[in-house]
Amino acid sequence: IAAAVDIWARGPAALPPPRQPRTPVLPVEGERNVLITSALPYVNNVPHLGNIIGCVLSADTFARYCRLRNWNTLFVCGTDEYGTATETRALEEGLSPRELCDRYHAVHADVYAWFRISFDHFGRTTTPQQTRIAQDIFQRLLARGFLLQDTLEQLRCESCGRYLADRFVEGTCPFCDYAEARGDQCDKCGKLINAVELKNPQCKICRGTPVVTPTQHLFLDLPKLEGRLEAWLERTWAAGDWTANARHITRTWLRDGLKPRCITRDLTWGTPVPLDGFRDKVFYVWFDAPIGYLSITANYTDQWERWWKNPEQ
């Protein structure tokens, strides 16, 4: 505080010269290196003020603060572009998912540029780098025995020749009998729904009646990781960097025991699964999208691992 008061009294001339920006921004030995990301905005809409405040503004404020402190700072973000929401919106607009993503990625980039959000790089998740890194992480999990196979029952539309993701199904809610419930949630009673539980299900594309069909999927074997996760959490909780709310939510998940989580989907729009027997499937967007932080950095610089695999700096 005394140093801040002293500099304030002496005015801007007392400030150190601003850091000259390098391209690309890479970690520098002996300096404070700061990598900043913000939540990847979903691509299928035009961002509004609430999105900007809730998504990128706080990270932008912190990035500006870091640069004013002359810390070596990299700030990356990008649009999250895979998933059923993109397919649904593309159908509504008569576009392919790629065309829809190209359109809205440009809209997002223009809006954030207008607000002068100070990204060093604003990318996207539908890139060759995303495919390469996501598939590499998948192969590492597979080689280490952290994946398992199981059968799920899903709705399949024979007329369309496809399994129907949750957002492609509508029907009557099994809890409150609301006639326009979605395959993942009822907007009337708010309860989460498994699509096969819907009464009178209909395919949103052709309005045909789908049938329940078994299909093989891959799961992340979270119970096998539970012990290592708990040990890691205890170490990081002891460091004091977690909020009380974050600790409480995490403890609740662990208290109830982790369950295997499905990481594949019967869709065409997504990162392909590189495994025989599953090559007609893609990765579930919540397995795939967080890897976007790595791939967006990799599209910014081929030395991306110096940021993501460099704990000493």
Characterise this structure:
The chain has 313 residues and is α+β, with helices and mostly antiparallel strands. Among the domains are: 23-140 and 285-309, 3-Layer(aba) Sandwich (Rossmann fold), CATH 3.40.50.620; 153-214, Methionyl-trna Synthetase, domain 2 (Beta Complex). It contains ten helices and twelve strands. It has a four-stranded antiparallel β-sheet, with no helix packed on it. A three-stranded parallel β-sheet has the order 1-2-3, with helices on both faces. α3 packs across α4 (97-114) and α5 (128-143) packs across α9. The chain is globular and about 75 Å long. The model has no long low-confidence stretch (mean pLDDT 92).
CATH architecture of one domain: 3-Layer(aba) Sandwich
Query: What is the distance, rounded to the nearest whole angstrom, between the alpha carbons of the first and last residues?
Result: 27 Å
Instruction: Name the average pLDDT.
Output: 92
Helix content: 25-40%
The CATH superfamily of one domain appears as: HUPs
Counting DSSP E segments of at least 2 residues, the number of strands comes to 12
SSE class: alpha+beta
